[in-house]
Design goal:
The chain has a 3-stranded antiparallel beta sheet with strand order 1-2-3. It folds into 2 domains: about 35 residues, no CATH class; about 90 residues, no CATH class. The protein is mainly α. It contains 6 helices and 3 strands. A hairpin with a 4-residue loop joins strand 2 and strand 3. The structure holds zinc ion (2 copies).
Length: about 160
Amino acid sequence: MGLKVPYTHYQFQEKISWALLDPINCWPTKNKVNVSPLYVNTQSQAPAPLSMSTKGSKRKRFTANSLSLGGAFENRLDCTLGHFPTPLPEGKKKTTVCQLHRMANRVVNGSNDNPPGARTDVYICRGCDAALCVSCWSTFHQKTCFKKRDYVDILDN
Ligand SMILES: [Zn+2]
Ligand SMILES: [Zn+2]
């Protein structure tokens, strides 16, 4: 009878070679549990999705068009969206300007400068991706269209 050998010498060498060359598919099953999770983990690491905060510098501009009905900011009037004030990150507090204040200064004074008060209490609306000061918050989210008089009021606040 003799001892039953599972592999010939050649098959044994071949299996070792394959196991070294391709451990994921050819490593003996007894050890596979220990080997494969390492490979699965490294392969399944997807790049982290871009967070909303990286969009900050590419915020849409306030213009007569983007603020009109059907414009890019039309969602500002959609009260089913969450229009919650998100505080600015610490490093952005000095540089972020209320977009409606700037728009008002352009319309009323024809100036691209930042009007007084434009950097006071500015928050981000995530629903609109807009930077707004506290006194402009409700105006921006309620007015269906802005007239010159509305902009004068904003600068007077
Ligand atoms: Zn909003
Ligand atoms: Zn403002």
